[in-house]
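User: Please fill in residues for this 343-position structure.
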């Protein structure tokens, strides 16, 4: 139990450190790929800029609304693109978790899934019914409260203390005692910190993605076909040990290099914000990140585009809905129309 807490603490601290480096404008070490990005297919058109009441650490969008979690207020705010108004969607006093680490929206049922920092609790919220359900999916075999939930499974990473390896699991909230192991990561003594990453999901295409911070191997799970597959980003970076032991816990090595920092997905494409330098960037002296686009079915690289700079602030979150791409620059959210030119 104590070791599990240390591992969870290391993973959480790693994510916070990554965001700190990006937020404080530090120039991180970069990986160079012997590749030239193609910028012909995807073009951005700026539409609007929104000021949120704090730095947005988690963002989702759908049906004309943008939802942003502001950590220092422990609240979720909502911007409506039709009324151009921002309001408090979930205030701190009504949010029954200490820290939100993940937010998912089921746009079909209009249900919100709010994950806490322990990995043990998920809150589902139905704004139309003003209804909250608490779901305990670890060591809970009684199913969920509040009746049956649709599309109620998500990918989750979990450290197996017996095998001493990080696993990618499919968690089913209706039957939480029946989690399925989909993938086992390479063995690292750091408890999986070297394989740390993040999740994106597209409800309509039934696709879930796990995207590592430190290597280019993307894991895709199709919940309709119950199939797991792998593909690689253009840099082909392999997984490796990126940590050092400090006392009883592992921390990120100063030599560790973040290559993927955030992503968004739609029915056809996966958009990954990458800090990998390619030949075109090196030749032009460009040091900023690029968004690399991959086909969700094949994993093939489809093209890239660059986000414009904004007040010298980093992009920390992405979202996609309809023909829009949304990017968070700390507490500023920029909305773009994304034009896609098919050959």
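Assistant: Residues filled in for all 343 positions:
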């Amino acid at each position: 139990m104590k070791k599990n807490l240390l591992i969870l603490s290391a993973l959480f601290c790693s994510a916070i450190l990554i965001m700190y480096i990006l937020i404080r404008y530090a120039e991180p070490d970069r990986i160079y790929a012997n590749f030239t990005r193609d910028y012909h297919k995807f073009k951005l058109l700026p539409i609007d800029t929104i000021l949120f009441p704090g730095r947005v650490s988690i963002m989702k969008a759908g049906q004309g609304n943008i939802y942003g979690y502001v950590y220092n207020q422990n609240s979720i705010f909502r911007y409506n693109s039709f009324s151009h108004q921002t309001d408090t969607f979930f205030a701190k006093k009504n949010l029954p978790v200490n820290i939100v680490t993940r937010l998912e929206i089921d746009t079909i049922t209009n249900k919100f899934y709010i994950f806490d920092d322990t990995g043990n609790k998920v809150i589902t919220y139905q704004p139309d019914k003003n209804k909250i359900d608490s779901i305990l999916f670890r060591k809970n075999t009684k199913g969920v409260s509040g009746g049956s939930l649709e599309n109620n499974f998500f990918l989750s990473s979990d450290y197996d203390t017996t095998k001493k390896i990080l696993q990618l699991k499919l968690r089913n909230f209706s039957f939480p005692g029946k989690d399925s192991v989909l993938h086992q990561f390479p063995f690292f003594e750091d408890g999986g910190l070297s394989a740390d990453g993040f999740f994106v999901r597209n409800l309509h295409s039934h696709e879930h993605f796990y995207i590592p911070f430190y290597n280019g191997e993307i894991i895709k799970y199709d919940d309709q076909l119950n199939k797991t597959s792998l593909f690689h980003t253009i840099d082909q970076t392999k997984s490796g040990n990126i940590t050092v032991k400090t006392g009883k816990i592992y921390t990120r090595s100063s030599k560790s290099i973040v290559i993927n920092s955030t992503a968004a997905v739609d029915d056809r494409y996966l958009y990954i914000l990458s800090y990998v330098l390619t030949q075109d960037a090196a030749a032009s002296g460009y040091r900023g990140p690029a968004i690399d686009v991959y086909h969700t079915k094949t994993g093939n690289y489809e093209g890239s585009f660059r986000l414009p700079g904004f007040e010298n602030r980093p992009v920390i979150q992405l979202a996609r809905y309809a023909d829009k791409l949304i990017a968070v620059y700390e507490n500023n959210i920029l909305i773009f129309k994304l034009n896609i030119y098919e050959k």
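For context: The helical segments are 2-23, 279-284.
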